[in-house]
Design a protein that fits this description.
Number of helices: 5
Low-confidence stretches: 7-11
Largest sheet: 6 strands, mixed
Shape: globular
Helix content: 25-40%
Number of domains: 2
Structural class: alpha+beta
């Protein structure tokens, strides 16, 4: 039994991606969903390419990692007992969010991957502490929050692995490693 679970009360609902956007509404989502079901596979792929092109033109990024970061920050800020987080400045190496107490958070998001994205070591000291917490976020295939795992720097160091090709650290996403984390949220536990 993992005694490190920090599961919110069952009455607390997870943050949904639609809630992060000002102009999202249920009627529009239902309308789009109904229309999308009518499209052939080929037309759906063409539509996705057109949407990606328009997102890029507008400078809107919709990458799994960025969605995970927004969901985690929103989740932490909405739950009593968890630190309030602010998005780290663009370009901050290995740090995606900061707490009011000054703790640095690196946030890694996955859907189906077997390992996290990379954590690049300090060029002069490979073992230098880069953050206080690593937060690993699992999204379901609908980009909804599925689970949030938190590791201290010390825990990350114990279970990290080296990617020779990328010349950087990563965390293997085995069940054993995920169970070593403080489980902040897990959809299966609601």
């Amino acid at each position: 039994m993992n005694l490190r679970r920090i599961q919110p009360e069952a009455t607390n609902k997870p943050i949904k991606i639609a809630n992060l956007f000002k102009n999202s509404n249920k009627k529009m989502n239902k309308f789009l969903s109904d229309d999308l079901n009518k499209l052939s596979d080929d037309k759906l792929v063409i539509l996705r390419a057109n949407i990606e092109t328009e997102l890029n033109r507008r400078g809107i990024s919709f990458k799994v990692g960025e969605v995970g970061e927004k969901l985690v920050i929103s989740f932490f800020n909405s739950k009593p007992g968890l630190p309030n987080l602010l998005q780290a400045p663009t370009g901050a190496k290995n740090v995606d969010a900061l707490s009011r107490e000054g703790d640095r958070y690196s946030i890694k998001t996955f859907m189906k991957a077997k390992k996290t994205g990379t954590v690049y070591p300090d060029e002069k000291d490979r073992d230098r502490q880069l953050f206080e917490y690593l937060v690993v976020v699992k999204l379901d295939t609908n980009y909804q929050l599925y689970a949030i795992y938190r590791y201290s720097w010390e825990e990350f160091v114990r279970i990290r692995a080296w990617d020779k090709r990328m010349n950087a650290w990563y965390l293997p996403l085995s069940k054993k490693n995920l169970n070593m984390a403080a489980i902040i949220f897990n959809k299966d536990m609601l």
